[in-house]
């Protein structure tokens, strides 16, 4: 199972948008070249809020999205123990 992580700014942005009421936040599979949302047909994943955590829906499965900074801090602690 893949580990999905967003940098701190991206994680906070997605979390803020979800906790403020957005149903989902898109994460594009590639860089979207479109200037207008209505022109965009690019493939994307949905990030949703489940029990206070961000999860991404990929092929019908939900995978937890980690904050990269916290993930790195936790892996450093584990490697030092």
Give an overview of the whole structure.
- A five-stranded mixed beta sheet has the order 1-5-4-3-2.
- Helices cover 31% and strands 33% of the residues.
- The chain is of the alpha+beta class and 81 residues long.
- The chain has helices spanning 8-19, 68-80; strands at 4-6, 25-28, 44-50, 53-58, 61-67.
- The chain starts with a strand and ends with a helix.
- A hairpin with a 2-residue loop joins strand 3 and strand 4.
Give the count of helical stretches.
2
Instruction: Write down how many β-strands occur, each being a DSSP E stretch of 2 or more residues.
Output: 5
Q: H/E element string?
A: EHEEEEH
Write out the strand line-up for the largest beta sheet, numbering strands in chain order: 1-5-4-3-2
Shape: globular
How many strands, which pairing sense, and closed or not: the largest β-sheet? 5 strands, mixed
Percent helix, as a range, is 25-40%
Work out the radius of gyration: 14 Å
Look at the helices and sheets and give the structural class.
alpha+beta
Instruction: Give the percentage of residues in beta strands.
Output: 25-35%
Mean pLDDT: 88
Through-space gap between termini:
25 Å
Unreliably modeled segments? none
Quick description:
31% of the residues lie in helices and 33% in strands.
Keywords:
alpha+beta; 81 residues; five-stranded mixed β-sheet
Blueprint (SSEs and pairs):
Layout: E1 4-6, H1 8-19, E2 25-28, E3 44-50, E4 53-58, E5 61-67, H2 68-80
